[in-house]
Amino acid sequence: MNTPLIGFGGGCHWCTEAVFNSLIGVKHVEQGFIRSTPPADSLSEAVQLRFDPKKMPLAVLVEIHLRTHSATSNHAFREKYRSAVYTTCDALSAEVAEVIQTLQVGFVKPLITQVLPLIEFESSPDQYQQYYQKHAEGAFCQRYVDPKLTLLREEFSGLLIAP
Which residue in 33, 40, 27, 36 sits closest to 13, CA to CA? Predict the structure, then answer.
């Protein structure tokens, strides 16, 4: 089975990990830090994952990513929380760029999300992996992760793993 490797960054990797762990067709979500090519060569919080495009189309993954972080905000913490989709080949990069361009019509402000090569990934320590599953009742998860998961239930319910 073809399960492409892709990375997503934009906000806290604990939040991003919880979002993608909720989706059918998404395999092996790992949160940590991604580095790309200059000028995006500093480590930035992100996840990398594998997915089954027959169960979860790339376009839907990208849309969910754009809708679950501030994809139009060029705030002061963008180096730590770079809004990006990290790809491992030119064909995937081109496809993601086309998807983002198509999805722009659904956003009032311009999307700032970059399509970047995935050069290096450093996994977070084991104690932080699966953060939401371990700390769902905590204040951080209730304040930041739960609203993203609510959005998924409201707008992408058919694509969620049954609880």
Answer: 33
CA atoms in the 13 A half-sphere facing the CB of 93: 11
pTM confidence score: 0.94
CB 93 within 8 A of CB 101: no
| Cα dihedral value 121, 127, 132, 137, nearest 10 | -160
Residue type, 113: T
Asked if 81 and 61 count as a contact pair (C-beta separation under 8 A), the reply is no
Distance CA(111)–CA(157), nearest Å, equals 24
Quote the CATH superfamily of domain 5-159: Peptide methionine sulphoxide reductase MsrA (3.30.1060.10)
What secondary structure letter does DSSP report for 56?
A: S
What 8-state DSSP symbol labels residue 111?
P
Give SS3 for 10. Answer: coil
Q: What is the pLDDT of residues 11-63, one digit of tens each?
A: 899 999 999 999 999 999 999 999 999 999 999 999 999 999 999 999 999 99
